[in-house]
Amino acid sequence: MHRWDRGGLAKGWGGAAAESFNYKKFFEMVGLKKKSPEDVKKVFHILDKDRSGFIEEEELKFVLKGFTPDGRDLSDKETKALLAAGDKDGDGKIGADEFATMVAES
């Protein structure tokens, strides 16, 4: 279990039905919204698997696995919805500031 996942809460999303992912509820469940800006940035870097400085669509598909190895992959529809929610400048990826804003607004 990842240290950001309080008490294994993200694991419950591993068996959740496809199309049921709600990033606002998820961020709240794992306590991300209550984290400091520095901790949110650390989580961003964990999710940015290729270290490009952005979370791209392909990385978003596996966002639940960033919190627990048992997390399921997001569906294409869920991935695109998450990208649309976070990609404020329309460049097709989520930067660190966009991610922080998405967490703060959740």
From TrEMBL:
InterPro entries with a match to the protein in the record: EF-hand-dom_pair (IPR011992), EF_Hand_1_Ca_BS (IPR018247), EF_hand_dom (IPR002048), Parvalbumin (IPR008080)
MF terms from GO for this chain are: calcium ion binding
Q: Which residues bind Ca(2+) 2?
A: D91, K93
Q: Which residues bind Ca(2+) 1?
A: D48, D50, S52, F54, E59, D87, D89, E98
Q: Which PROSITE patterns match?
A: EF_HAND_1, EF_HAND_2
Assigned protein family: Belongs to the parvalbumin family.
The organism is Gallus gallus (Chicken)
Q: What is this protein called?
A: Parvalbumin
- Give the record's keywords alphabetically: Calcium, Metal-binding, Repeat
